[in-house]
Write the structure tokens for this entry.
Amino acid sequence: MNREDFPLLGDDIIYFDNSATSLKPKCVIDKIRDYYTNYPANAHRGDYDLSYKVDQEYEETRSLVKEFINAQELEEIIFTSGTTEALNMVVNGFFAPLLEANDEVLITTSEHASNVLPWFRLVKTNNIKVNYIPLDSNYYLTIDNLKKVITPNTKVISIAGITNVIGDIRPVKEICKIAHEHNIFVVLDGAQMVPHMKVDVEDLDVDFLVFSAHKMCGPTGVGVLYGKKELLEHLEPMILGGGMNESFDNPHEVYLKELPARLEAGTRNIAGVIGFGEAIRYLKEIGMDNIHKYELDLRKYLIDKLMPLKHIDIINIESDSGIVTFNVTDVFSQDVAYYLNKYNICVRAGNHCAKILKSSVGVNNTVRISLYFYNTYEEIDNLVELLSDYDKILKEMI
Amino acid sequence: MNNENTRKIIMDNYLNPYNRLMPKGEGYVKANTRNESCIDNIDLYVKFDGDKLADITFMGDACAISISSTSIMIKNLIGKTKNEALEYILEFEKMIDGKEFNKELLKDACVYEEISKQGSRKVCASLPLKGIKKAILEFLE
Ligand SMILES: Cc1ncc(COP(=O)(O)O)c(C=O)c1O
């Protein structure tokens, strides 16, 4: 779908690394160029037309995001540099002051490093415990398994909506329901979910949601921290400075601004936020449900073609997102990626930053194909043709 | 890789690498070496005898280029003095950076000359040399 919108796709390239980052459509690139060319002023500062336009565009993105994820208030949308920064803000600004020794945080072994390491630090600083919700034989998070590990000390469940290795969609709504019955907060890492399907924070009832613009046709260096307003009010700003204070005369009289400005210190990635707004308009136009459905059809097509190949071991045959991970018998994942690269096909090899997953999957490294709406059946045919010929892989992998 | 002979040397060293085993006996120091793309993971075990690299073995998973490069390096370095080894590493680095280098000294490691033109694989070929250099420099101190 919509291939003509992506300048790069005019070249002879097949891009299957969409979980890492997505391509950018021309409208987003143009929007960013327009800012730098025609109104490159700072936000929330000037009393002149150019700066006023910056404010309007910047805040327009906030309302686009609010509507996109169905948040209640504009103040619930904080712009960050990405998912990673947003997760660190939640952990350090909200949970570090709150959690005490022996409080428990539940994650899984398939979480991204960004949803593991900040919690690991709280183990050291606050003496909390990080426990794992066991995954089933498909590496899925099940409600039964969740129920088994909740204890009276459980305070937080912090999980990806869709994991970046297995690509399973977690039952977030049910998880939130159970969590809230036990007074547990839910942090949702939406990095792989928000770009690919409709996410409605009100319906899901998550407490915090984080995601990155660059995985959803937007620019790098921009992300979103959504939090329920009554919770965000208690999130301590980690970064202090311009734009977030109301007044300060001495160390004892510092007054901070209201949300969202309080959590957006310093000059923001203005061009990025404005470009992100355009990306959201663009995705809305295509329709998130259409995107999700098309990716599932593509995935099924790919799986059906890979399944008969004896030398291909698919790790996640079942999974309801556009992520397919596999290995080629006796070939190191990076060599497979290198082989495909010779034919201008971009795929990812490695552990995909989910380093602790290897303990459950038993393999260290995989090749990952991650699809987006601009991928096509013909591209998959090309890929499968190259993967079908085992001897060719062995011959051309170096 | 176009040259058949080059290909053969690399594949032979990948499929049957030299000294890919846990060291037998005492006195080995371990150096881990990780690729910047965080995939390749090779542990080198080095035994020094006075000024000499008496034995080197390795364990780990990595791509064909890293494994073969480790194998060739080990073959070429065993028995060398620390300074000779550092000289070898320097020549290898020159080769990978596309500069003039001493072919005689590098022997079959010259198969990676072409790699200097392939950005992503430079790191793989250099990986074991970075590891051993670290071990030598630490040991020298
Ligand atoms: C599940 C998940 N969480 C977090 C991240 C981190 O996102 P970013 O690098 O944009 O901060 C990623 C990106 O790969 C991801 O896939």
About this structure: Chain A has two domains: 3-16+287-389, 26-285. The interface with chain B takes residues 332-335, 338, 341, 349-351, 353, 364-365, 397-398 of chain A (CB under 8 Å). Residues 41 and 188 of chain A are 34 Å apart (CA to CA).
